[in-house]
């Protein structure tokens, strides 16, 4: 038996999308905790429908499209494009909670990237000259997670389509995990939901791959309101 030549790419994709990746994704719920607490999400059908709507009409497809642009810019060593799309993404974050979560996860992944492969040190140094680093958080700046994910995907030789698909799947998995910890259904139900959403993940990933710059738009007011309310929720499991 001959190992698939793409096996190394698959292994690396599995690693950067693993829930064990120490970027802090488990700490955030993107408003899911508030939705569960307020009764909007109480059943697996509620959760499944919410995630479907977000994938087809919310901002996550645009985030995946930005990860794609970061991947492409990294391959071309286009630091100007990386900086542009990072600034664009920061400017479109509608709540402080979502913006800070994106910066924290992005900069954790950038730090981990160099520790995984010290051959990337010279590339990270040049990128850090143009992208904000952790010390810039107090200045209202940061490297967004989608940007970092695209950079790392390209540097690890994961192709663009798999990078986008991995980003979308990790988003779904994280929010399902958040919901499992917030409402009364178990891990098995959570896995059933992810399995049921496979076709939607594929469709949204394809939409991100096909999205033109002029088409980067969304209707994410529901998730934005949930996130804003979560910032002031009396009792919280997740960071805000």
Q: How much helical structure, as a percent, in the residues?
A: 55-70%
Distance between the termini: 49 Å
Report the order of strands and helices: HHHHHHHHHHHH
**Radius of gyration from the alpha-carbon trace, in angstroms:** 17 Å
Structural class: mainly alpha
Oligomeric form? single chain
The total strand number stands at 0
Q: Roughly what is the average pLDDT, rounded to an integer?
A: 82
Low-confidence stretches: none
Strand fraction band? under 5%
Q: Indicate the CATH class.
A: Mainly Alpha
Overall tally of structural domains: 1
Task: Please give a structural write-up.
With 240 residues, the chain is an all-alpha fold. Helix 4 packs antiparallel against helix 5 and helix 8 packs across helix 9. It is globular, with a radius of gyration of 17 Å. It is built from twelve helices and no strands. The protein has one domain: Urease accessory protein UreF (Orthogonal Bundle), CATH 1.10.4190.10.
Please give a handful of descriptors for the protein shown.
240 residues, mainly alpha, Urease accessory protein UreF, 12 helices
């Amino acid at each position: 038996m001959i190992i698939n030549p793409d096996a190394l790419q698959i292994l690396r994709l599995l690693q950067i999308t693993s829930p064990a990746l120490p970027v802090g994704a488990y700490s955030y719920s993107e408003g899911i905790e508030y939705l569960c607490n307020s009764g909007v999400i109480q059943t697996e059908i509620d959760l499944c429908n919410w995630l479907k709507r977000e994938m087809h009409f919310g901002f996550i497809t645009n985030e995946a499209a930005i990860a794609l642009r970061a991947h492409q810019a990294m391959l071309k060593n286009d630091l100007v494009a990386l900086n542009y799309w990072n600034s664009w993404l920061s400017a479109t974050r509608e709540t402080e909670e979502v913006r800070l979560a994106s910066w924290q996860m992005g900069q954790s992944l950038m730090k981990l990237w160099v520790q995984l492969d010290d051959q990337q040190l010279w590339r990270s140094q040049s990128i850090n000259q143009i992208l904000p680093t952790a010390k810039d958080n107090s200045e209202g700046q940061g490297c967004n997670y989608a940007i970092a994910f695209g950079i790392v995907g390209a540097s690890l030789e994961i192709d663009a389509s798999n990078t986008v698909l991995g980003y979308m799947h990790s988003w779904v998995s994280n929010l399902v995990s958040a919901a499992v910890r917030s409402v009364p259904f178990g891990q098995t139900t959570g896995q059933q939901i992810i399995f049921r959403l496979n076709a939607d993940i594929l469709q949204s990933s394809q939409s991100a791959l096909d999205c033109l710059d002029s088409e980067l738009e969304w209707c994410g007011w529901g998730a934005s309101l949930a996130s804003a309310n979560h910032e002031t929720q009396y009792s919280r499991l997740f960071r805000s």
